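So, does this match?
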Amino acid sequence: MSNQDMPKAYDFSTVEPKWYKYWEENNLFRAETVRDKPAFSIVIPPPNVTGSLHMGHALNNTLQDILCRYKRLKGYNVLWMPGMDHAGIATQNVVERNLAAEGLDRHQLGREGFIERVWEWRHEYGGKILNQLKRLGSSCDWSRERFTMDEGLSKAVRKVFVELYEEGLIYRGDYIINWCPRCRTALADLEVDHHTQEGNLYHLRYPFKNGQGHVVIATTRPETMLGDTAVAVNPEDPRFQTLGDEELVLPLVGRSLKIIRDSYVDTEFGTGVLKVTPAHDANDFVIGERHGLDSIVIMDEDGRMNAEAGSYQGLDRFEARKKIVADLEAQGFLEKIEPYQHSVGHCYRCKTMIEPILSKQWFVKVEPLAKAAADAVRSGETRIVPKMWEKTYFDWMDNIRDWCVSRQIWWGHRIPAWYCRECGEIVVSMEDPDQCPRCQGELVRETDVLDTWFSSALWPFSTMGWPDQAPELDIFYPTSVLVTGFDILFFWVARMMMMGIHFMHDVPFKDVYIHALVRDAEGQKMSKSKGNVIDPLTIMDQYGTDAFRFTLAAFAAQGRDVLMSEERVEGYRHFVNKVWNAARFALMNLQDMDSGVAVAPEDRTSADKWILSRASKVSDQVSVALDEYRFNDAAATLYHFVWHEFCDWYLEEAKLTLYGKYRPESRPATQKTLRDVLSAVLKMLHPFMPYVTEEIWSLLPGTEGSVMQGGYPRMEDWNDDQVEAEMGLLMETVSAVRNIRGEMQIPPSREIQLRFFSNDSDSLNKLETQGAYISELCRASDILWEGSGDRPRKAASAVCQNVEVFIPLEGLIDFDFEKKRLKKEIDKTGKELGYANKKLSNEDFLTRAPEHVVDKEREKAKELEIRLKKLETNYERIVAMSS
């Protein structure tokens, strides 16, 4: 397609697939394993193999792509490492659901057969999100795509586990874990979502063994009392100072319970007496360890009561609660039940209420690892942006608990541990052992797999070939920046810091940029239940990828959530069209351009010099903003420059020269300026809007290859503060005249006279040299440069810096009609303002209406007030002129 054939409207549906195919076929995203350029590297937060593109993915990957495309333009050797996470629990759930539809379960297939089915599912259905990321324009090096279960990463996982075990940083032991009865696996603390919900506080009577009265204990989980092995009070609590060595009797069970003293007991909660259930509460477990208490597990993996629960065996935990409460009441052990709001943990995957339960699990001793990771941020080796997230990071790292890494599922990295049937020896090894090294007995392989986050914690170096000595590690590690959401700051970022420092002896990334959430236009979190979910794929199909990406960037302010709506994307689609139409105009006027003609500075018009200077400064501003991860500032700077300076001003001024109305001899210089500035605009916009910029670049005279190979615009030589000041005065003057025309309702077709007055002859002379621009842009038939003298009485005026401009109005408007029109507008606006102010003075409205509704009403009142003042000023002006 030639530039003569450039369509009037931009059709993104044909442009986008064409250019993505071109980029891939020409290996334009590929990183080189050579050191001839500075390196820039990012590892993608690996999406789940089960995932599909949502708004969080769209924002995260758009910001990464902006950085990668920008750095390529800057001449960097860019590696954006793509890949996917095997998502142990989520993937196993998907495949198990598919099996259930066939009337099968994983146990019928056996472990090996089930794993085969998971791999079949992964190859056929898994990973569709990667194609959706391509749809978004993500410029990953797809030739290096990794998967957390591929051979290389599996080797890295095994080496890390074995080495940590040999260093004493991985151990197996009894501990209270977060157990999900639905997923039938342990969860790390961070995989538990805590929600405040309505419940009850049950006050239970525990009688003294000697028959002399009872103590009352408050609990939210009466079913766990079956596992009580002691009762605790605070040694400082004056209410229990007279207690001796008395024992209590566990209601319904009859077991004798000691009364122990422990400072953990909260004297303000309930009655100040704590039932201690070491096998079903993390804090009780610690108390039990201190006091040598027994631990009795009363539930099985399905959340049902086991044989230790006696007559309640077989009941679901919630059914057991009802039955136990009823029995307690019937036997006189229930004092009272109170409504009680409390925080309850739920599985982050299936939302089932978790059950704390004692179990043998594998743990990482994280305290020494966490200290090094925290120190790296404190010392500045890794920087967290925005800085406010540092406190959250330190709070977690400084109070960290050991990490439970074993999961009771089949899909994942199987823990490389074996148990001897004869002597109980535990063998952890890189190679599968044949027999017990101690007694030569038979070994049995551990059935648990590793937490998915264990393998993803190695992502920055395992994806680059570690533990082998791959050239990528030497060139691209540590990575330049990690772009991620705050919700996985602990799950992933902190663990990558720990593992990277420990195994690579260097931080995994120099910067961590934490972006916020994407919410709806009202600031609400998107959810299917609310019906406010916006599908990125639908948005891209409707408005185009460039408009969608630019919207995300424009609202990605540090520390603030991105408020998304279709209306906002539609607004930026207009911006894409504006760029397209500006390019179309430019290309039509570059048809006869002679690129070989030399252009001297004096050949250029003041408008040419101004737009080159502005492009130079904008180029620097955008570069600084992107270097500082101020994506919204970079987008806003570009938007203002392209729309309001390049399109609204420069193109209008350039037309005068291009069409021979002003300095026709400067046409070649203006053509070159137009071509150079459009080229710079395309390069600066490319990271944000890759498709439309690539399409226009291919049509621009003198270009070769892809715009991303064109180099970031360097225009330092064009900085000219003087010409910018002169053009600033011109634009202010033209804007003032246009505002007067609008306020006075002077039709665009009517020509006007302009009269300029100023004691500053220098400013007046500078404006006079721009007379042709002023005449054309203001539609003025006559301009008088009077300097001093009497100002016209029946005229509208404005002051632009130190120059006064007057528009004589006699013969242009009907003063009587204008007075009536303005009076009518004043009355109407006054009524609207009064209604808005009455609403804002209503306390009921201010307290009950959503915050965004109140803010909208305040903004409306402010706009009405400004409008009313303008109308009143114009009315007074007309009255004065007509008297």
Observations:
- The chain has a mean pLDDT of 92.
- The longest strand covers residues 192-207.
